[in-house]
Design goal:
40% strand, 141 residues, four-stranded parallel beta sheet, mainly beta, globular
């Protein structure tokens, strides 16, 4: 189990986050580059005070994943205290989020309402989001 006292920063120098056997609490920021999330682990994002993440992401304190780079999610379980902010692409960048696996609690990555073009579909081509009891699992079509 890992508690992120500060946000976990991912970029070109650490492009893979393997969740296998891990539970991570706290926001994850894709600073730049191409980042891949893989493995069967859990990421949760409890609610923190607005200044939790410092000036870098102070306005995104309730976001689980905030990306300025490109993010591919291949697996894991994701539960955000504010579900609508589970995934968030920086509006002023060309960031791409592709979901090819994983389970999202109370969040449908195929129907996102936090991006400028709404609804936004973060599910990769050839995959679909399947809902059961408020959990959305992304699987191959």
């Amino acid at each position: 189990s890992v508690f992120a006292a500060e946000p976990i920063i991912l970029n070109e120098s650490n492009p893979v986050l393997d969740l296998t056997g891990k539970t991570i609490e706290g926001p994850i920021i894709v600073e730049s580059g191409n980042v891949i999330i893989t493995g069967n682990g859990t990421v949760t994002s409890p609610v923190y005070p607005a200044d939790y993440a410092g000036t870098y992401v102070s306005q995104y304190y309730c976001t689980m994943f905030f990306t300025c780079g490109n993010l591919v999610i291949n697996g894991g379980t994701f539960k955000c205290a504010t579900p609508k902010w589970t995934l968030n692409a920086h509006d002023k960048t060309q960031s791409i989020i592709e979901v090819k696996g994983g389970t999202f609690v109370n969040y449908n990555p195929a129907e996102v309402y936090t991006e400028p073009t709404q609804p936004k579909n973060f599910v990769a081509e050839g995959y679909k989001s399947v809902e059961k009891d408020g959990e959305f699992t992304v699987v191959a079509e």
